[in-house]
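Quick entry between incubations.
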Amino acid sequence: AQSVAQPEDQVNVAEGNPLTVKCTYSVSGNPYLFWYVQYPNRGLQFLLKYITGDNLVKGSYGFEAEFNKSQTSFHLKKPSALVSDSALYFCAVSSLKFYFGTGTSLTVIP
Amino acid sequence: SQTIHQWPATLVQPVGSPLSLECTVEGTSNPNLYWYRQAAGRGLQLLFYSVGIGQISSEVPQNLSASRPQDRQFILSSKKLLLSDSGFYLCAWSLLTDYNEQFFGPGTRLTVL
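Done. Structure below.
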């Protein structure tokens, strides 16, 4: 069965500090992995995806994610957090359908 | 460019009333279409998906139904709403391969009283 896990419900980080939002996955076959961001009362916005190739994927708004096959992880990162990054973040894996994690609420403290 | 529309944006309905939420996609052909429900601002529950006109797959048995009368139109319906149907409903589309991302609409906030 395909699934993703986001072990942290809430992550707090100070503005200007690096941020990491964690995601681990379980898939049979090739993993197609995605990150989305959701602002209050809005739809999800696509940030980045891993299909194949370079393990470090760069996406929108300065975000990047590192695919680690041995640890079955796909953590989202940003070198310097902004207050405007405060939102709900979802990891997902695709295998005919999308399987979303339960979301991590990121708060960037000014 | 592609765009996805949902309406209405918000809806307040009494228990037992019918429901119709509409989703349309512009700028692409033969997309996969999806309905999700998000409760309490958290996890997404896939309700229905469609790979073509008239082709609907249901993920969770419930009192909701979906239809796809046209290539880029996806409708979520109910004959009688329950209190538990309250939530944030999201429509999404994608191209027909696993490695293509889904694009989400702005959502409909449904409150059943």
